[in-house]
Amino acid sequence: MKCKTRWKKKLACFGREDGNILLLFAGSLTVLIFFIGISMDLGLIYLKRNALMNLCQLVKEDRFTFQDSIRYSDNPGKDSFTMIEDALRRNHFDGTVKVYFKEEAPETNYRYYKIRTQLSEEYSYTFLKIFGADTTTITVYFDGGETYGEGISDVIWHPALPVSSYNGSYTSQPDGSCDYDSGDMPADW
């Protein structure tokens, strides 16, 4: 008989929580909301990055349309930037476009240039604003290029300007113009 009363006392003590469950619930809910908020911001950043990658793919597929325009351009760097930026603006991209253009020194039977297009867009945090984080920049890029001339007897057209006058970076500005920097090239190029 004493055994039963001892168990009843233990069960009675176990049943009294004195507010501990409420504290555990509040702490758990806070942690849960924190991770859901961070997951939401990271998910939205990932979606924005994928949208930028889709725009990159769109411009990559248009390169065959641009190919001859760049090949026979007097300033292929500037014209590459203009064609790429126009394609992106037509697809409602409102971020920053930066085009790196680099062509090797000309040879009569050979021509090679490469282009890197970099897209940057600001993302405004949703949840992390609570902790003072306002925005982050999402940047994606893709590379492309062309080679002309296969044989020794090929004659390849070259612009009259020296390659140093159009090699460099072209960066879009909010007013619709672009900045040219002849010394700005990617380090891993």
From TrEMBL:
| UniProt keyword annotations, A-Z | Membrane, Transmembrane, Transmembrane helix
Q: Which stretches does the entry tag as region Disordered?
A: 170-189
Its domain of life reads: Bacteria
Segments passing through the bilayer: 21-47
**The keyword Membrane is assigned to this record:** yes
Tell me what this protein is called.
Flp pilus-assembly TadG-like N-terminal domain-containing protein
Q: Tell me what organism the protein belongs to.
A: Lacrimispora amygdalina
